[in-house]
Amino acid sequence: MKAPRWYWAFLVVNAAVGAASPLLPLYAYHLGGTAADVGAMSAAASMVNVIGSLLWGRLADVTARRRLFVLLSFAGLSLAYLALPFLLRVPQLILLNAGVSLVWTASATVSILILLGNFPRADWEREIGRFNVYSGVGWTLGLAIGAVWTSALVRLVGEGWGLRSLGLVVAVLAAAAAVMAARELREPSQRVEARSLRHLMVAVGNFLYERFRYGPTHLQDVLRPSQLLRFLQGRTAFGPELVLCYYGALLAFVGFATTFVPFPIFVRQALGWSNELVFALYVAHHGVSVLAFGWARRAVAKWGHRPAAALALLGRTGIFIGFAVVGGTTAKWMLPILFGLAGATWSFFQLAATALVSRLSPQGLQGQGLGLYNAIAGLGNVLGALAGGYLAEFVGFPATFLCGAVLVFLTMPILLVEGRPVS
């Protein structure tokens, strides 16, 4: 069956967002921003992502015009990046990134609902997989565009306008995606409510990509302030074993963000590499992650969820230590290898962790269990971004990477604790 033509709109918009993903920290560094500034930028965006998921999810449940969310999101991205050349201070970039995160979350929240509303239930898993392929290809293509563009333009117009002009490219791509969506995307023939996704999310839990954005639909029902303390104590329907798994995930994502948020500044400042090489590193990271997905799926099936997750964490511990070594020696040739391997370990960890959460969740609460996992990942990104940015600024990059390694290493025994077999 041929894919719907509106999938191409999401490929194009993912190319725009992929090109923009390293752009803002690199532009902040060009304007004199520090690792702490980049950490604050990332933390603000992660917080807005969580809030935006709740906001747009609630609005999507009360309106039938979900196509409008996509059009406004794509148009908002275009307008935001059209403003990039006029921003000359880091605080302005932080606000821009937060706004971009908010409007991007609008389309991410409703896209899965539109997709499912256009296909019979028997085709849902196949179409989600195909939709994720289009999105992943677009993201990788955007990173490649960023590498080529900055390489060509910097030599002609200088670093500043090379980066600013890339912002205009992102704006054009987002505008093109908006036009494509306006022409090809229609309201779904059947209305799918968010609560219909709970069992589906368990079915596709083994096929999640790094940017799986459909989980936090019922988050407001789980994280009411009156329930937060009982949840942290494990006295909820989820049970203490799943709560312990969430604590491990929180620690892991704090460690990931502590290391990866200041990473572009490390490459530019400590190693002296060019912007196009930063983009090239992210192309390798994302490409290896996608290629390793099949290996990760076979490893989880053969070894089990917990051993596969622990193997990924052990690998990332060694990789983060390797980052610290590269920062303190002249062995710069190791960095592309290590960064590519980090992409592979992500596939192993995310696949094993999401499958573990779905299987530990009580019957009927699997969707909320995965939604809460995504929210905890967002919280970990906020805390890790702040910690990584300020540690890199005031302690140094090697010490920051070692802190990330310690946090990831400490996660392993938490995830390996098994109170009951996971079927």
Folded structure, characterized:
By secondary structure, this protein is an all-alpha fold. The chain folds into two domains: 1-192, MFS general substrate transporter like domains (Growth Hormone, Chain: A), CATH 1.20.1250; 196-418, Growth Hormone, Chain: A, CATH 1.20.1250.20. The chain contains 17 helices and no strands. Helix 6 (124-184) crosses helix 12, helix 12 packs across helix 15 and helix 16 packs antiparallel against helix 17 (397-416). The relative contact order is 0.15.
Lay out the secondary structure:
Blueprint: H1 7-20, H2 23-30, H3 35-62, H4 67-82, H5 90-117, H6 124-184, H7 198-203, H8 219-222, H9 225-232, H10 239-260, H11 263-270, H12 275-291, H13 293-303, H14 305-328, H15 334-360, H16 366-394, H17 397-416
Helix pairs in contact: 1-6, 2-6, 3-5, 3-16, 4-5, 4-6, 6-12, 10-16, 10-17, 12-15, 13-14, 13-15, 14-15, 14-17, 15-16, 16-17
Question: Which ranges are low-confidence, i.e. pLDDT below 50, for 5 or more consecutive residues?
Answer: 198-228
The total domain count is 2
SS strand fraction: under 5%
The CATH topology of the largest domain turns out to be: Growth Hormone, Chain: A
Q: How many beta-strand segments?
A: 0
The end-to-end distance, rounded to whole angstroms, is 33 Å
Overall residue-averaged pLDDT value: 83
CATH homologous superfamily label of the largest domain: MFS general substrate transporter like domains
| Shape designation | globular
Q: Helical region count?
A: 17
Regarding CATH, which class of the largest domain? Mainly Alpha
Question: Which class best fits the helix and strand makeup?
Answer: mainly alpha
What is the CA-based Rg, rounded? 21 Å
Q: How can the largest sheet be summarized? A: none
Helix content: over 70%
Mind telling me which CATH architecture of the largest domain this is? Answer: Up-down Bundle
| Series of H and E elements | HHHHHHHHHHHHHHHHH
